[in-house]
Structure formats: C-alpha cells, structure tokens
Amino acid sequence: MAVSSAGFVEVYPEFAQTLSTRPAYVAARLTAAAQHVDAAVWGDQYDWAVYTKAAHMCAMGPYGESARLNKFSEKTTYSVLFDEELSALPVRMLIV
C-alpha cells in the first residue's frame, strides 16, 4: 500500500473536510511526515506512521486547534499514538 490522501482520510476520517477544502495542505503534510518516518524502521506499519505523523502536523497547524489535547500544548492524540507505537518498535523487532 502506498501513502495517499485517500488512505490518510480512510485512517483518519476526521480530516475528510480538511482534504476536501485544502487538498494541497494535506498533501504537503503527508510529504513532510514521510520525511520524518523511515520505512526501514516502521516496516509494514510505514503508511500508518506517515498518516499519524501527518495527522499530528495537521492538528498542530492553523486549522487543527480542536484536535489538540490542550490548546497550549504541542501534544495531540496523534502524537501520543505515534510515540506509543514508536516505543514499541524495538520489542516488535525482536519478535519478528
């Protein structure tokens, strides 16, 4: 599976409105997120990691204040999910 705007909205449907009104914004966040995620590290969870990082970036942007855990915080639901999965990667690598 390849990273796409449609895939992003499938995983995070709460961004469907953002995609329909600002497709270039979502595409730019997906591109930026992909630069922060290493396919060799994430393996078959690569797409999910890019989508989750992009969701965090969208939430931190000017259109995503409602998705933040606290309007003054840099944490979002998506950053918490990403960090939890990232911390579990070494364990999964040992199991595989």
Produce the secondary structure layout.
Layout: H1 5-11, H2 16-21, H3 23-34, H4 39-42, H5 46-60, H6 77-95
Alpha-carbon distance between the two ends: 20 Å
SS field, number of helical segments:
6
Total separate domains: 1
The general outline is: globular
| Series of secondary-structure elements, N-terminal to C-terminal | HHHHHH
Rounded average pLDDT: 86
How many beta strands in the DSSP annotation? Answer: 0
Percent strand equals: under 5%
Could you estimate the helical fraction of the residues in percent?
55-70%
Question: Structural class of the secondary elements?
Answer: mainly alpha
The parts where pLDDT drops under 50 for at least 5 residues are none
Radius of gyration: 13 Å
Main beta sheet: strand number and arrangement?
A: none
Tell me about this structure.
With about 100 residues, this protein is mainly α. It has one domain. Helix content is about 65%, strand content about 0%. The protein has six helices and no strands. Helix 5 runs antiparallel to helix 6. The protein is globular and about 35 Å long. The model has no long low-confidence stretch (mean pLDDT about 85).
Short description:
66% of the residues lie in helices and 0% in strands.
Annotation keywords:
mainly alpha; 0% strand; 66% helix; single chain; 96 residues
